[in-house]
Design brief:
By secondary structure, the chain is of the alpha+beta class. It has helices at residues 33-43, 52-65, 71-74, 110-129, 157-162, 202-216, 262-266, 292-295, 300-307, 344-348, 389-400, 430-434, and strands at 97-105, 150-156, 193-199, 220-229, 281-290, 359-360, 363-369, 375-385, 409-419. The protein contains twelve helices and nine strands. Residues 9-24 have a biased composition (Low complexity).
Length: 435
């Protein structure tokens, strides 16, 4: 769970970081409606109640004198580029908040209804990610900037039957096999349509969730929704790999966009059996509850042996720092492997899986407490790959056969979605729905 997990360093060039403006580069006059109204509100309404020219002058003065948004609030991620690119939210740096939501198409909506919905959703997502409010805005995020908002859309296995597009369903969407730790709730799994919302501000994230839900109208019905969180930007003295709710550094051995084979592992190539997925990716979602009461009874040394890494800094038990390669052949004084044979880091490592790797981008969750007082908390595991059978399924099968971490986990929901690239114009999924 911690190995091959998220550290998402930069972005694939077009998908992320270049669009995130710093405080210094943000044009002073390029204020969105949300920002303008927020600035006026922060400065007070005194200049606006005068009426006429006095009101206008007061608004301009408030705009000029108000403090600028911090880098966190001003950061913007582009919805699309000038060519086909992966959707935002895949290689985008981790945000502090997320909402995951799945919908099922309403009876009779069909392909035509799905196309109209994706057209509306894409237009709305592009506006929201630019920090602009929709016409009937609720006002939740009027005083905030884009806050690195991303909206990512995917299609589930059942979507293709409901839209009479089964001939265009990729084989990579074949249902995942069952695993021994599965205790899956079908009501919180799968779904025709899937949306991932991420932002560095909780209100911005909720605002996007609510706007997209309302835009679904009568075309699609909510199936399930989950909420997640990570560290807020600036919460540590320097940028660091995040920790999960077990207290483990979670994101050490993730593929990086700078890796020579990154694109090949994570994104669908030109030889795809379904050309509408070229440049896209497949995401596996697992809601994994952590048995924290049991885990926290283990000593730190026992926890480190389960993971195969030091808890303090994420370094392998064989020495070095977090990013030092594991020495899987190193033996201790007693002749046994320093990194135990069933350690999670060993079993999940690419070198133990014929090079198989996933780009993990998980969020933690906490949904209160269960009847026995145990926290209902854990990980919203999301793994991106070009082929789930060669990546997630292969690695999970191996973990299923002897991972020391498995007794502390329960997989309670699952989903697999095709996430196509976004075109320079039009809406997400247009080549599928109109091709």
């Amino acid at each position: 769970m911690t190995e091959n997990s998220t550290k998402t360093a930069g972005t694939a060039a077009e998908a992320t970081g270049d669009s995130a403006a710093s405080e210094a580069d943000a044009p002073a006059v390029a204020l969105s409606r949300r920002r303008l109204l927020g600035t006026v509100g922060a400065a007070g309404a005194a200049g606006l109640v005068v009426g006429g020219a006095g009101g206008a002058f007061g608004a301009v003065a408030a705009q000029d004198d108000a403090p600028k948004l911090s880098t966190v609030g001003a950061s913007e991620v582009a919805f699309r580029a000038d060519r086909r690119t992966p959707q935002a939210g895949i290689t985008t740096p981790m945000q502090a908040r997320c909402h995951l939501v799945a919908f099922d198409l309403a009876p009779g909506a069909g392909r035509k209804g799905a196309a109209a919905l994706m057209r509306r959703w894409s237009a709305l997502a592009e506006k929201l990610m630019a920090g602009k409010a929709p016409a009937d805005d609720s006002g939740v995020a009027l005083d905030a900037g884009p806050a690195s908002l991303t909206v990512t859309f995917g299609f589930g296995h059942s979507f293709f039957g409901r839209t009479e597009l089964t001939a265009r369903r990729p084989m990579q969407l074949d249902p995942l096999p069952s695993f021994s730790a599965d205790a899956l709730d079908p009501k919180r799994s799968n779904g025709d349509l899937w949306i991932q919302i991420g932002a560095d501000d909780a209100l911005v994230a909720f605002h996007a969730l609510r706007a997209l839900q309302k835009e679904a109208g009568d075309t699609a019905r909510l199936r399930w929704q989950m909420n997640g969180f990570n560290r807020s930007p600036g919460a540590t003295a320097q940028p660091m790999t995040t920790r999960n709710l077990m207290g483990q550094v979670d994101g050490t051995n993730n593929p990086k966009p700078s890796d020579e084979d990154f694109e090949e592992r994570i994104f669908v190539g030109r030889d795809a059996d379904q050309q509408w997925m070229r440049g896209g990716s497949y995401v596996v979602l697992r809601r994994i509850r952590m048995l924290l009461d049991t885990w926290e009874k283990k000593s730190r040394a026992e926890q480190e042996r389960v993971i195969g890494r030091r808890k303090a800094d994420g370094a392998p038990l064989t020495g070095g720092d977090e990013h030092t390669a594991m020495d899987l052949n190193k033996l201790g004084p007693d002749g046994s492997p320093v990194i135990p044979a069933d350690a999670h880091a060993r079993i999940a490592a690419p070198e133990s899986n014929q090079g198989a790797a996933m780009l993990r981008r998980p969020f933690s969750y906490h949904d209160g407490f269960r009847d026995d007082g145990a926290p209902d908390a854990g990980l919203l595991f999301m793994a991106w790959q070009a082929d789930p059978l060669r990546a997630f399924t292969q690695i999970q099968r191996k973990l299923d056969r002897g991972d020391a971490l498995s007794p502390f986990l329960r997989h309670e929901a699952s989903g697999l979605y095709a996430v196509p690239a976004v075109e320079p114009s039009g809406y997400v999924g247009q080549p599928l729905l109109e091709g």
